[in-house]
């Protein structure tokens, strides 16, 4: 019997963790069979980190967009590569893909102009992608993945077929008018012991916008004149609108005991929020960090500016009145 073994599944080329399935541990050389990346980024999203690694867009019913991805053979052998679009969803705060070539509504709208190609070692080529939204498409955000796949049957593996695939996530919002807003707030910070010797700082994030979030960010710590970090988000969290998720950042550095000021800077695309607080090291048990979010700081700053403006305006008015009387 021929057995199929999915040895590597990856979405995107960003640092964010991707969905991975390993039924058999491959050699490092086999893991590096192919890679894929975005070639085209809309001018309106050139500063959006998500758009540099994923297809993130908003379209009206009946609209069509064209993008290009680039595939490279990173192995030492000629590779035959298949291309297709597959289903995806967001479940339990994770971008999730099913096994095989399962499709959904969005994957059915995606057309890859190249179905298969052969690449020599080190060779790279573009692949054209077209996404056509039907006229009667309903409103809402949909998810899919564009896959490049290599299937190989090595002599030493006997009856096991190895499937390597790399992909790019697709986040497509459909509806009339402009793009729905993206926003979130940091509900609070906490700290807990990690699985190893280092503690973990967590942030509870609520999606207050109308599009899915892919959380990235950093954490910095300060104690007197000592600074540590920035430490990067260590879990890939995708949060649907109206839902909350926990962002985890491991402080993977040995630090002196005592009270530290923490500064968390989280982002999804171009939307960024901050939270600050204090943490006591070492962390022996889960603890809540007294935190202030960036949104609150903005409110206080705007209020302070408004108050200063009122005071200045009042002083100017009194000065003008006095000048009038003296005249």
Helix/sheet category: mainly beta
Distance between the terminal alpha carbons, to the nearest Å? 105 Å
Number of domains in the coordinates?
A: 2
Computed over alpha carbons, the radius of gyration is 25 Å
Order of secondary-structure elements: EHEEEEEEHEEEEEEEEEEEEEEEH
Q: Extract low-pLDDT stretches.
A: 1-9, 12-30, 295-327
Name the helicity range.
Answer: 10-25%
Task: Note the beta-strand portion.
Answer: over 45%
CATH topology term of the largest domain: Immunoglobulin-like
CATH structural architecture of the largest domain? Sandwich
Number of helices: 3
Q: Kindly provide the name of the CATH class of the largest domain.
A: Mainly Beta
* Mean of residue pLDDT values: 81
Shape: globular
Number of beta strands: 22
Most strands sheet: 6 strands, mixed
The name of the CATH superfamily of the largest domain reads Immunoglobulins
């Amino acid at each position: 019997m021929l057995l199929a073994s999915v040895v590597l599944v990856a979405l995107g080329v960003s640092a964010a963790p991707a969905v991975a399935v390993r039924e058999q541990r491959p050699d490092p050389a086999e893991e590096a069979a192919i890679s894929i990346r975005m070639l085209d980024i809309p001018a309106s999203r050139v500063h959006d980190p998500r758009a540099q690694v994923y297809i993130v867009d908003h379209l009206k019913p009946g609209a069509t967009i064209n993008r290009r991805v680039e595939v490279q053979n990173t192995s030492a052998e000629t590779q035959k590569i298949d291309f297709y679009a597959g289903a995806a969803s967001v479940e339990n705060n994770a971008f999730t893909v099913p096994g095989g070539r399962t499709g959904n509504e969005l994957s059915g709208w995606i057309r890859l102009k190249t179905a298969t190609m052969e690449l020599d070692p080190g060779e790279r080529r573009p692949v054209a992608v077209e996404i056509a939204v039907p006229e009667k498409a309903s409103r809402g955000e949909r998810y899919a993945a564009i896959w490049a796949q290599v299937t190989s049957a090595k002599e030493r593996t006997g009856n096991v077929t190895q499937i390597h695939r790399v992909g790019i996530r697709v986040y497509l919002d459909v509806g009339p008018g402009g793009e729905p807003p993206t926003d979130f707030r940091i509900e609070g910070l906490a700290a807990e012991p990690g699985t190893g010797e280092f503690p973990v700082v967590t942030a509870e994030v609520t999606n207050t916008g109308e599009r899915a979030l892919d959380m990235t960010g950093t954490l910095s710590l300060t104690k007197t004149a000592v600074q540590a970090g920035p430490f990067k988000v260590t879990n890939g969290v995708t949060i649907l609108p109206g839902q909350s998720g926990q962002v985890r950042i491991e402080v993977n550095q040995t630090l002196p005991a005592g009270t530290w000021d923490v500064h968390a800077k989280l982002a999804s695309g171009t939307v960024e929020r901050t939270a600050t607080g204090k943490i006591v090291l070492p962390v022996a048990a889960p603890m809540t960090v007294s935190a202030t979010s960036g949104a609150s700081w903005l409110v206080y700053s705007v209020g302070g500016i408004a108050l200063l403006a009122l005071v200045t305006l009042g002083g100017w008015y009194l000065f003008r009145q006095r000048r009038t009387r003296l005249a």
